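Friendly challenge for the regulars: who can give me the structure tokens for this chain first? No prize, just bragging rights.
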Amino acid sequence: MTAASEPARNAGTRSGSNRSGTGAKTSAAATFALVFGVAGLFSVLTAILAWLGLVLGIIGIILGIVGLKMASRPGVTGRGVSIGGLVLSILAVLIGLGLAAGITTFVNNESAVDRLQTQVDKLRDKLD
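First reply, four minutes later:
Bragging rights claimed.
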């Protein structure tokens, strides 16, 4: 028997709905909050794209809050996804702010910058 000759599964029901006919939809804001949270956290952890991760984290927090509000509506799911997106977005923002504060403190400390410059000069001398 080939796949074309088999009867269609769930014939007569819409795709993505359950058997009772009341299909719950996941909030788009919740899904995007999770996506922005993951992207923001990844960007912050690269340290080079920390500024981008900070922006993505802020957007993720806003979308997570909207997703939580939408998930409280009847027929809409996504509360867990919203919470996951919120947690990841908040982590991205906190790590991004911590990284920015650390870099700012380091750059404003002349002795630390001088030590770094000395190390860079030593590495250049070794390469030459």
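The first helix runs from residue 28 to 46. The first strand starts at residue 25 and ends at 26. Your move, everyone else.
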